[in-house]
Every structure is written in structure tokens, then in C-alpha cells.
């Protein structure tokens, strides 16, 4: 008998493959004294050797999958395995204290971790994390427990985990990872967003998937409906293979629209742009016929590594994107760290409500040593294409003015150094905070454009954490309150002759698109994989009719009512 679970459909597609559990294994052991030390020394030395072989393979795979920069972390791990200052004390402890290998290893490595962590030195703090990681790997080998190694996957799998962090997701090899299913998370958590750009079918927020699935079980993931089937029957496999086939056929069909212009039946053009996390997403952007980049989430440049990317490194990354987009508009968002996107090497204090805390522009304005190199890199890259810059999580006009002042200072510095900077860089803000939407008319006088970040705007307006599957019923893009805020922002920008885009996931949502078109949204920016579907839909709609629809939706009493209304307009 198969078993069914339902979660939140997070990324389109159907996956059928064996489960790969990405969960923390049990590494508990008894703190025993031993009579014979030789077998313990052997166990320890064998575990070191096996860890070396394993880490070398991981390192080589990571280099292929995620690039040499990010693979370098494993070089640091390999060095620890060769470090006599760690190896020798463990061997001495086994020999002199006559304790078993797991006890000696953990006692020695935790001493190092404590010392490194207490140092007021970023580099040493990072070494603490490395030692902890390596110690875990060696311990697992001593105990004969297998650690999950997602970068070593070399057959088709469905990843099962409690949650996936954005950096876990970044390590997945798209060639083999067919889908993923998690216990927690919402449709707009960043791993869900990444799964869409990687075209991996995913279902999040199932609560119990890690308890229901065993390693190697057959799993079907229906990312279109949110259903997960564990150990399906032959009939179920056939039915879903057919569904997968239909999904791929439709994708092929959509490819014909790649070079078409997105024009409504009554002749109105809508700009369809893509959201990207790294320059590696550009192939998808180009293949899916995006008219520009509406959101470049630069924080991914800072993730999956041990230290900040240098100004030069950032310059190269921005230049690549601008050049490849060949003068199409590229909206780059400055660093938006915080919330569910962490940077361990910044050692930021843990907060009770990270989504309401020290993040994004708040952090950048307070730590110019982080902000200024990014602005300089962007300004230097600005002559290689059509650059727009926007600031995330702006709550007050003062924040925008401060950010703009710093940008202008860096521009002046560069010009003094003889570096050319484009003169036509548009400067905008993300509208993600209800206070900013409420004052859109005031902001509109000073910014060049708005980009509505509904992923956050919805969570702050409805006071419903975007990561929480428990309150996901309150996470309502079609709630009339959201539609009214969106209208207010669009109208305010148009009054000042400016434009408004939307880069939250709502911009690519089939039910929202008719409403947004009716509200007069200028630019829709979404996962590249949603673009062709959105294009087909917009080409079948009349803006005039959608204006009437949007007008009626603004007066609805609930999100459900809006949804029913849209369905009655759009067949
Ligand atoms: C948003 O909040 O809508 C947005 C696009 O930013 P992010 O999802 O990266 O928070
Ligand atoms: Mg946001």
C-alpha cells in the first residue's frame, strides 16, 4: 500500500525517484575506558583515512557542481585531517587516558572549537566551524554511521529533509536531484524559490515527511498539487509518468513563445523579466526569453563560502551578468542578508524575530565596510550594460537617502580615481514593508522605480511568517489588502512618471497575473521557468477587461472571493 502526504506545492514538475534522506544521523556514543588501546588507535586512523578519501571526492564533485570558490572549503577540511596539532593529542589521549576513540576525538576537537570561538578574530571563528564539521565526519566513520553527502549523489533521487537551507539547495546537482520534500517551509522560502529556478519539483511544509520515508523508498513528488506518494503502486507510477510526460510536452510547446513579444489582445505590452541568484541562472533566463533581469539577489554571491567576496570578485560577477544581458535592463539588489538567508562568517547575533531584525539595508547602512565595496563593484560594472540598482527592505525615506548618499560618494571616489561610471543608472527601492507602500506617493518623488517584493510584503501585511507552514493559510497574495497596497504603489509611481515592477513570487502566479495586469503593473519579474507560461497567459488576456476585474477585486471581502472572481473572468 502506498502512502500519501500533502504539503505546499513549491515548484512545478513531477519527480519519481528513490528517497535520499538529508537528515542529521544519530552520532551518540558511550564514554568508555578501554583495556586495549591499539584497536582504538586503529579505528581512529582508519576513520581519518576514510574521511580523507571521502572529502577528496566531495571536493572534486563540488568543484564541478558549484565551482572552485565554494569547493575550497573542503580543502580547509582536508588540511585539518593532516594537522598534527589535532591528530597527535587525540592519539595521546587514547594511549595515556585509555579512553575509546570517539571520546578522545570529541574531547580534543571541542577544546579547539572552544578556543577558536572565543577569539576575537573572524578567521579563527570560521576555523572553529571547520573543526566541528571535520570532527563530525571522523566520528561518523569511527561509529560506522553514514553522513549525508548531497554533493556525492550520482543517481536520480528525491531529497527528503526537515528543511533545506539556501546553501544546501545550492549544492544540489540538478542532473540527479529530481525533486525535494521538506517538513517545514513555505512557497516563498528561499529554498523553494531556488528549486523553481533550478527546475526541481518540490513540495514543502509536509510536517512529517522525514518520519514517513526511509532511505531508498520510492517517492513521487507532484510539485503542481503538493502531493507526495511514498512507495507508490505500479498504477500510481504509470499515472504519474503520464502526468510528467504531459508536463514536459507543455514545456516544449511553451518554448515556441521564447522570442514572442508579450502583448495583450488589446495591444498592451507587459515586460517579463527574470529573478536570478547567480550568473549561473543566466542560461535559464536566456532560454526562457526574459526581457531583462528584474531582481538579481546578490546575497547568493556571499553565501556558501568562508569570507566576504572581494570588490573585484563582485565586479566580475556583475559585469558578467550585464554583458550577457546585452543592454537589457538588469536590476541588481544590494545585499539582502538576514531572515532565512544567513552568512555564518558575519557572526550576527541570533535574534528572536530575524525577519523583523537586523537585515538588508539596515545592516548595510550600519556596516559600510560591507556596503561600500558592493556599491563600488556595481558602479564599476555599470558601463558594461544597462544597470539599475535597488535597495532591499527600505522602511523610511531617510534610509533611501542615506543609501543614495553613500552610492554617490562612491561614485565620486571612483571618478576621482579615473574610473568610468555610467550616468544613467536608475535607482529604486523594493517595496516590502507596508509603511513604505503607505507612503509610496512620497517615495515616488525621489526614486526612479519601485519593485514590489510581495514575498515579504505579504508576510508583514498579514503578520504571517513566510517560512511557517502552520500559518500558510494566512499567507494570502489575493487578499484585497495586498491588492490595494499594490494599486497604491503603482498609481503613486505613475503619477510621478516612474515605473513599478514586482519581483515577489506573486508576479508569476497564474491567478495574480490578470489582477496585476489590470492594476497597471509595468514589469513582472519571476523565476525564469515561469516566464513562458506567464507570456502565454498575458497574450490571451485583454487589459481593458482585466482593469474591470481588478477594480471589482479591490472591493472583495476575502482572498477566496477574489480567487473565485478571477476564475469567472479567466477561463
Ligand atoms: C520579496 O520579498 O518579495 C523579494 C523578492 O525578496 P526576497 O524573496 O529575496 O526576500
Ligand atoms: Mg524580500
Automatic annotation (TrEMBL):
UniProt subcellular location: Cytoplasm
Domain Phosphotransferase system enzyme I N-terminal: 6-127
Catalysed reaction equations from the record: L-histidyl-[protein] + phosphoenolpyruvate = N(pros)-phospho-L-histidyl-[protein] + pyruvate
Top-rank EC class of the record's enzyme: transferase
Domain of life, per lineage: Bacteria
PEP-utilising enzyme mobile domain mapped to chain residues: 153-226
Xref: InterPro entries: PEP-util_enz_mobile_dom, PEP-utilizing_PTS_enzyme, PEP_util_AS, PEP_util_C, PEP_util_CS, Phosphohistidine_dom_sf, PTS_EI, PTS_EI-like
Every PEP-utilising enzyme C-terminal domain range: 251-540
Keyword terms of this UniProt record: Cytoplasm, Kinase, Magnesium, Metal-binding, Phosphotransferase system, Sugar transport, Transferase, Transport
Any one GO molecular function term: phosphoenolpyruvate-protein phosphotransferase activity
Function per UniProt: General (non sugar-specific) component of the phosphoenolpyruvate-dependent sugar phosphotransferase system (sugar PTS). This major carbohydrate active-transport system catalyzes the phosphorylation of incoming sugar substrates concomitantly with their translocation across the cell membrane. Enzyme I transfers the phosphoryl group from phosphoenolpyruvate (PEP) to the phosphoryl carrier protein (HPr).
Protein name: Phosphoenolpyruvate-protein phosphotransferase
Gene: ptsP
Amino acid at each position: 500500500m502506498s502512502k500519501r502526504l500533502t504539503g505546499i506545492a513549491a515548484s512545478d514538475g513531477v519527480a519519481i525517484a528513490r528517497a535520499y534522506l538529508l537528515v542529521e544521523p544519530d552520532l551518540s556514543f558511550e564514554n568508555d575506558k578501554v583495556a586495549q588501546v591499539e584497536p582504538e588507535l586503529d579505528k581512529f586512523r582508519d576513520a581519518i583515512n576514510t574521511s580523507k578519501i571521502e572529502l577528496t571526492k566531495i571536493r572534486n564533485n563540488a568543484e564541478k557542481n558549484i565551482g572552485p570558490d565554494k569547493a575550497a572549503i573542503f580543502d580547509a577540511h582536508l588540511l585539518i585531517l593532516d594537522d598534527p596539532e589535532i591528530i597527535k593529542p587525540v592519539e595521546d589521549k587514547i594511549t595515556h587516558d585509555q579512553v575509546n576513540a570517539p571520546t578522545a576525538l570529541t574531547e580534543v576537537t571541542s577544546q579547539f572549537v572552544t578556543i577558536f570561538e572565543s577569539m576575537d578574530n573572524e578567521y579563527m571563528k570560521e576555523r572553529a566551524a571547520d573543526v566541528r564539521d571535520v570532527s563530525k565526519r571522523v566520528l561518523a566513520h569511527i561509529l560506522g554511521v553514514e553522513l549525508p553527502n548531497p554533493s556525492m549523489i550520482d543517481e536520480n533521487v528525491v531529497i527528503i529533509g526537515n528543511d533545506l537551507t539556501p546553501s544546501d539547495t545550492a549544492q544540489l546537482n540538478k542532473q540527479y536531484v529530481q525533486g525535494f520534500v521538506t517538513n517545514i517551509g513555505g512557497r516563498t522560502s528561499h529554498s523553494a524559490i531556488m528549486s523553481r529556478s533550478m527546475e526541481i519539483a518540490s513540495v514543502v511544509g509536509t510536517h512529517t515527511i522525514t518520519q514517513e520515508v526511509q532511505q531508498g523508498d520510492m517517492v513521487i513528488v507532484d510539485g503542481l498539487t503538493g502531493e507526495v506518494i511514498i512507495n507508490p503502486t505500479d498504477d500510481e507510477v504509470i499515472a504519474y509518468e503520464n502526468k510528467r510526460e504531459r508536463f514536459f510536452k507543455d514545456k516544449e510547446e511553451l518554448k515556441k513563445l521564447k522570442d514572442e513579444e508579450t502583448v495583450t489582445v488589446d495591444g498592451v505590452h507587459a515586460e517579463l523579466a527574470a529573478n536570478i541568484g547567480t550568473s549561473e541562472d543566466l542560461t535559464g533566463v536566456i532560454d526562457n526569453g526574459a526581457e531583462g533581469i528584474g531582481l538579481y539577489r546578490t546575497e547568493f554571491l556571499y553565501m556558501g563560502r568562508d569570507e566576504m567576496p572581494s570588490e573585484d570578485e563582485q565586479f566580475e560577477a556583475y559585469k558578467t551578468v550585464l554583458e550577457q544581458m546585452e543592454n537589457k535592463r538588469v536590476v541588481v539588489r544590494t545585499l539582502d542578508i538576514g531572515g532565512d538567508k544567513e552568512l555564518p562568517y558575519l557572526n550576527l547575533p541570533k535574534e528572536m524575530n530575524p525577519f523583523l531584525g537586523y537585515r538588508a539595508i539596515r545592516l548595510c547602512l550600519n556596516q559600510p565596510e560591507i556596503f561600500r565595496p558592493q556599491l563600488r563593484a556595481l558602479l564599476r560594472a555599470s558601463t558594461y550594460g544597462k544597470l539599475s540598482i535597488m535597495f532591499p527592505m527600505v522602511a523610511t525615506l531617510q534610509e533611501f537617502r542615506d543609501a543614495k548618499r553613500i552610492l554617490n560618494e562612491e561614485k565620486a571616489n571612483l571618478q576621482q580615481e579615473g574610473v568610468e561610471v555610467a550616468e544613467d543608472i536608475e535607482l529604486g527601492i523594493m517595496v516590502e514593508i507596508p509603511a513604505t507602500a503607505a507612503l509610496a506617493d512620497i517615495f515616488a518623488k525621489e526614486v526612479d522605480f519601485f519593485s514590489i517584493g510581495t514575498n515579504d510584503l505579504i508576510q508583514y501585511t498579514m503578520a504571517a511568517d513566510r517560512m511557517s507552514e502552520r500559518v500558510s493559510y494566512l499567507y494570502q497574495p489575493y487578499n484585497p489588502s495586498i491588492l490595494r497596497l499594490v494599486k497604491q504603489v503603482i498609481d503613486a509611481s505613475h503619477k510621478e512618471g516612474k515605473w513599478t515592477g514586482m519581483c515577489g513570487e506573486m508576479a508569476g502566479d497564474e491567478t495574480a497575473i490578470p489582477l496585476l495586469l489590470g492594476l497597471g503593473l509595468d514589469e513582472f519579474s519571476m523565476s525564469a521557468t515561469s516566464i513562458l507560461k506567464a507570456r502565454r497567459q498575458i497574450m490571451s488576456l485583454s487589459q481593458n477587461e482585466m482593469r474591470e476585474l481588478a477594480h471589482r477585486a479591490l472591493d472583495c471581502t476575502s482572498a477566496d472571493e477574489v480567487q473565485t472572481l478571477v476564475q469567472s473572468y479567466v477561463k
